[in-house]
Amino acid sequence: MKTIMNAVSSEYIIKNSRFIAILYPINDISDVKKYIAETKSNYPKATHYTYAYILDEQKKSSDDNEPGGTAGIPMLSILENNDFNKILVVNVRYFGGIKLGTGGLVRAYSKSLKMALEKADIKELVKGYLVELTFSYNDQNKISNLLKDMSIIKKEYLNDIKYLVEVPKDRLKILENYDYKIIKEMDII
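and the corresponding structure tokens:
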């Protein structure tokens, strides 16, 4: 599995229609809604906002009133066939006045997505866990060293310190002397 590290876009023009594919890395379903709304806000006069995403076991696509199967499903297929996860593509279309036909739409949406993927910073995902780690303030420096190359999602400072952190499967043993709880198994960067 692989994902992208940051948002990237690409534009493809055919027969006066503009196709702008925007890729977003996502970690939560709320990211999907947020980025679709952001895209609509950034391109308010577009004709269509099609999309496809893969987030672990969740997959969805939308043709946004384009002929059925001409946008969302072809884009989802490209993401699946290239082994992507934690990724959203929103493809913005400005209609240019010339109909492309169903085959033309499939090719245009697919090409604009492929162009964006060529520009993306792609990273391999590894098997790991989302872990809740609780430790004392005295251990903060030790924990910072242990987790220096891991992704800390959330930090909470109460009586003890609580981190929500992504830990690769093969590195979980470094936490064995601390109070931790596995929240879920997942693909991580």
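(Above: one complete record from the training split.) The chain has a mean pLDDT of 96.
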